[in-house]
Amino acid sequence: MPELPEVETVRRGLEPTVLGAKIRHVTVRRADLRFPVSPDLGQRLTGATFTALERRSKYLLFSTDRADVLLVHLGMSGRFVLNSATEGALDPQTRSAPKTALGSGPGAGLGGHLKHDHIVMDLEPGHRLVYNDPRRFGSMEILEQTALSSSPRLKDLGPEPLGPDFTQQHLKTCFVKKRSPIKAGLLDQRHVAGLGNIYVCESLYRAGIAPTRACCDLTDQELNRLVPAIQEVLTEAIAAGGSSLKDYVQASGELGYFQHRFAVYGREGQACPGCDCDKRIQKITQSGRSSFYCPKKQI
DNA sequence: CAAAGTCCCTGGGGGC
DNA sequence: TGCCCCCAGGGACTTT
Question: What is the pTM of this model?
Fold first, then answer.
């Protein structure tokens, strides 16, 4: 599930290829993603050049020299696949025909599509950038640069957890009258942007705070632990993704998300690492979502 | 207004 | 082996 570290890892993986690349042709094979793909997406991208690739929260922002921004969310299962004309790799399990190298014209390689390849961008020189998303929880929209900050997708997002505005004082202000559990508080993108279920569980474990605690009941001391816990968990996950990036960009060209070794997430019934707890890691449901925690270490 | 619930979607895994 | 059911999750939307 792509949360901030996975999106950042994808960004770093794509950046060398995308920066300065001219878009030769765009094919929208399915427009019914989480939100409808912008109807004029192909027209506005074709002939433009990517000038920057940035991340905000879990969004990727591809800027172009036409003052447009391609805003992408990977949802649950969204991936980018990068095909290089020189590599010509193929996935024998899922692809019936070899990937077609560029050079045979826009839209070439009709037999080379994977299932769930929804948007195909042919780039110059010699690359093909494919957005693949089985569950179609992702989105792809094009906006004017000037409209970005007021767009409904971004306008209510809280600070970047690895940026200067994410402080214990900020959280204290957010949480002073908030009675919902801290698990929900940290998943709320208005308070801090980019955390999902996995990294909220991991951060609360590291900070020693039970996910059931009310936001407004956290002490200053706990908030002072929570902020660096979040920052450390994210930084380590990004570093782990980054250090394995060359493996992570597989021969097939697929940019998946790095599988991190989690302390609590998905480890119900196991002993938590470095803890002598006898209770083992518990799984509970909070507002329809699984929380994993150690009842001894997290109070 | 806050908080909790619902829905979208598909692949994968467990149970029988 | 095959089939069915449930689960995973972000975020917009609906209900309480």
Answer: 0.89
